[in-house]
Specification:
Largest sheet: none
Shape: elongated
CATH class: Mainly Alpha
Low-confidence stretches: none
Length: 104
């Protein structure tokens, strides 16, 4: 019954790591633009924007402020892609487990 869980766990872990990489890339962009001096502060700001949480406790300068909603839109879209990917894996697992339901 639980033999299919590793593939689902791997898919979820892959999606999570992909999100962390993208958050890190946004944070690196913020450091390159000169908005943050350290990667830790940039990562915190990036994670808040990427997840669309957007605390607003750290605000970028007006010349780079448009990057914040762009990152939030990017994060929302990528979470949608992750959801679709995980749903597709679950759907294939169910169809392989209950092959007799395919023809109905």
């Amino acid at each position: 019954m639980f033999a299919d869980l590793p593939i689902l766990a791997l898919t979820t872990a892959f999606a999570f790591v992909a999100h962390l990489i993208e958050i890190t890339l946004w944070a690196a962009l913020y450091v390159i633009c000169g908005e943050f001096k350290d990667l830790a502060g940039a990562f915190y700001h990036s994670a808040a924007n990427y997840s669309t949480l957007g605390y607003g406790d750290v605000i970028m300068s007006s010349s780079w402020k448009l990057l914040e909603p762009l990152e939030a839109a990017n994060g929302a879209l990528m979470f949608g892609v992750s959801t679709a990917m995980i749903f597709a894996v679950i759907q294939r697992l169910v169809l392989s487990r209950f092959a007799d339901l395919k023809d109905q």
